[in-house]
Amino acid sequence: MVKQYGISSIESSEAALDRHLENIRLRGYTILTDVIPSEVIEKFKKSLEEVYVNQEREFGKIELGEISELDIVRAPFAYDESFLSLITEPKIHQIIRAILGENYVLQLQNSIINRANVEHHQASWHRDIPYQEYTLSRPISMNAFYCLSPFTKETGGTIFLPYSHKFEKFPSLGFLEENQIQPELNSGDVIIFDSWLYHKAGNNSSKLDRYGINHVFTSPILAQQINLPRLLKGKYSENEQLYELLGYKYERPDSVLEYRKERLQRVKQRNEK
Ligand SMILES: O=C(O)CCC(=O)C(=O)O
Questions:
Q1: H helices of 16-139, where?
Q2: What pTM, to 2 d.p., does this model score?
Q3: Measured from the CA of 156, which atom of ligand 1 is nearest?
Q4: Which domains, from first to last, does the chain contain?
Q5: How far is the CA of 74 from the centre of ligand 1 (A)?
Q6: Which stretches of the chain score pLDDT less than 50?
């Protein structure tokens, strides 16, 4: 029992899950260690470079630079399905489901390659649902950021401003400098955070490129960054978990008739139960 006075009740967080949830609720983030093994990580890094080369060839390096998209690999799972395992990882969903409830979708999967001695566009403070300068009474969007390299001060590990998911207004420079933190993480660790938490990529002063893969899971009321059902054209929709996570379940009807037909089908299904 912690020594205290004048406190009538204390948060109970005996189990690991409870501690993660309390971390997220109060300071905005929690850390899961050793989620993916090192052999898999090496394959992921190689594949990310291959997908990036493809995306760079498709769009053009100069053009990527013009829209601040250099060294970002968008939707890698659509190019190499081994990245699907990061989307469906049970350890992540145990926490995310406890926060968002049963209904949520993948809003994005993006990899950030923080190259040695190159300033990345993500090295600017932001929320992962940007332009939202208000707070919410409970989270509607959660991130799962996988470290595929050691995240340290030297490699440009992510910098967070704890508790800032509760700030409507972005704080002063002095406050930022005093309160930001840069957790030291190993490759294979995952940081789960409220998407309202301010964060940015650190400065990579090491000799090695630093790899991470970010996932945003949101309530289906928020739009996906890329319309994944249309991108995938039905692929994976037979899989119950992916049908929900990739957003097939929440696709918007195209007409009044479609809307009503879908509702009728749901009512019939409910009545048959
Ligand atoms: O790469 C990082 O450390 C941060 C990435 C980031 O801010 C993002 O993906 O939103």
A1: 16-27, 38-59, 61-66, 84-88, 90-100
A2: 0.93
A3: 3
A4: 16-226 (2.60.120.620)
A5: 13
A6: none
